[in-house]
Backbone:
């Protein structure tokens, strides 16, 4: 039943040959294109490897406290302002300098799933008026085309009479893909309970232990945010 | 005749096929065009490096206004979500508060962080408070830390000795929602004007605005709620300032 098999059936054979032209054309279009795609996927060995991604991190300007007790409640930074009835929630353990130190301990490469990630922790908060609406990079000189910003917008130590003491952060991630691309923003908050046990409370160095616990909660909250942002 | 057709078809195939091959040979030019990302990625960010930075030209040195307006951000923030338990007396209210403790803690911290001193300052600066309050041209001083203001205290809240002096205090931000009312934020504000050491005007009021977005949970996008809070705060302050200006023309 194939084309041109019948002896003397040249008419059918010629029609088959004519019909075969579009098929040949299609094949001619597909096969070379696929062949061309290969070199594009595997760059020539002489080509330089792409620059690693860069993550720039900024701490919050300060750490606030919120407190809801049986009698006293509502004052922001109550202990720092010396208001009676407000306990010290050790917010000074998360001043800007401590935040910078702690931010450097977070496993950013793991959270961003990028072993080659270049991480820069800046010593001071951003001075931008509005980081959310900003479309420019904060670091322009020499920054990689693949560039991310992670800004701790707020850090808060919180206490509530019916809930655990915890550290909460509000953070913003700006993702710039390409030298002149607009950023993709993701802002969220994450919280971590302060791991402060009764034994810590009874210990003679309980204040130092509380500082350590607050800092551990901060690192945990930041790590949570780093993981959350990877889904957005 | 069939031979002629056959021959013609062969000739056609021979003539057309190279053209098709030529097309496909040209086609690979497209993939590199669709592959500019590595090229752009490798290029230095010259665009951003040379982008103009919005700078304000230094204004000619003008004498600072003699009047001062001191502004304090919110000293207190609270958040309360009520469930149906609140309607069952003291025990019901306690159970309800306990059940919503984590949410209230979270909302309080979120408002504290979102409407911090910096954010409030931004909003108040945009509103041009001296003009809104019909005050004489004033030097506006924004304080970093909130302050609790006692109505019985006629003293100035700052150390300023300016003869023409006024205070604008954001006393509190209170978020509330229950099964009937959607989330709303109430802003408590106060303005005091002094003539020397004497208080000539003391006006306090509050205004609430329904929020256009729900306050977020942990891990959710906070963008809409941040915008909603800032808009509500701006609306509250503008309403209060207009009311004050109408009362003390």
Residues:
């Amino acid at each position: 039943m194939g084309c041109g098999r019948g002896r003397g059936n040249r008419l059918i054979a010629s029609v088959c040959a004519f019909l075969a032209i579009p098929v040949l054309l299609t094949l001619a279009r597909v096969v070379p294109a696929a062949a061309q795609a290969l070199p594009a996927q595997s760059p020539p060995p002489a080509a330089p490897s792409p620059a690693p991604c860069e993550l720039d991190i900024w701490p919050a300007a300060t750490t606030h406290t919120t407190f809801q007790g049986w009698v006293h409640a509502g004052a922001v930074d109550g202990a720092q302002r010396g208001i009676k009835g407000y306990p010290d929630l050790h917010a000074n353990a998360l001043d800007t300098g401590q935040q910078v130190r702690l931010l450097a301990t977070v496993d950013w490469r793991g959270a961003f799933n990028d072993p080659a990630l270049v991480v820069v922790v800046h010593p001071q908060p951003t001075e931008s008026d509005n980081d959310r609406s900003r479309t420019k990079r904060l670091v322009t000189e020499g920054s990689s085309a693949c560039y991310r910003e992670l800004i701790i917008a707020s850090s808060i130590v919180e206490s509530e009479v019916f809930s655990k003491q915890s550290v909460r952060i509000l953070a913003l991630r700006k993702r710039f893909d390409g030298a002149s691309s607009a950023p993709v923003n993701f802002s969220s908050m994450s919280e971590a309970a302060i791991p402060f046990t009764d034994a810590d409370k009874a210990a003679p160095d309980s204040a130092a232990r509380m500082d350590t616990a607050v800092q551990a909660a901060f690192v945990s909250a930041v790590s949570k945010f780093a993981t959350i942002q990877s889904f957005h | 005749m069939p031979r002629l057709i056959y021959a013609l078809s062969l000739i056609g195939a021979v003539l057309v096929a190279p053209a098709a091959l030529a097309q496909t040979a040209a086609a690979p030019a497209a993939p590199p065009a669709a592959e500019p990302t590595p090229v752009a990625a490798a290029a230095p960010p010259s665009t951003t490096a040379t982008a103009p930075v919005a700078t304000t030209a230094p204004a000619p040195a003008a004498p600072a206004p003699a009047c001062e307006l001191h502004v304090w951000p919110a000293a207190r923030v609270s958040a309360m979500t009520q469930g149906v338990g609140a309607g069952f007396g003291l025990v019901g209210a306690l159970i309800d508060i306990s059940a919503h403790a984590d949410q209230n803690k979270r909302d309080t911290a979120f408002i504290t962080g979102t409407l911090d001193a910096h954010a409030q300052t931004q909003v108040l600066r945009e509103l041009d408070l001296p003009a809104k309050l019909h005050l004489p041209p004033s030097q506006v001083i924004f304080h970093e830390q909130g302050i609790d203001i006692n109505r019985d205290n006629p003293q100035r809240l700052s150390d300023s000795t300016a003869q023409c002096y006024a205070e604008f205090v954001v006393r509190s931000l209170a978020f509330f929602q229950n099964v009937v009312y959607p989330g709303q934020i109430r802003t408590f504000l106060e303005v005091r004007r002094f003539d020397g050491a004497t208080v000539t005007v003391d006006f306090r009021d509050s205004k609430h605005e329904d929020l256009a977005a729900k306050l977020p949970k942990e891990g959710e996008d906070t963008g809409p709620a941040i915008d909603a809070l800032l808009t509500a705060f701006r609306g509250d302050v503008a309403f209060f300032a207009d009311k004050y200006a109408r009362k003390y023309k």
In short: Chain A has two domains: 1-40, 54-229. The CA atoms of residues 42 and 219 of chain A lie 40 Å apart. The mean pLDDT of chain A is 82. Chain A touches chain B through 71 residues (CB under 8 Å).
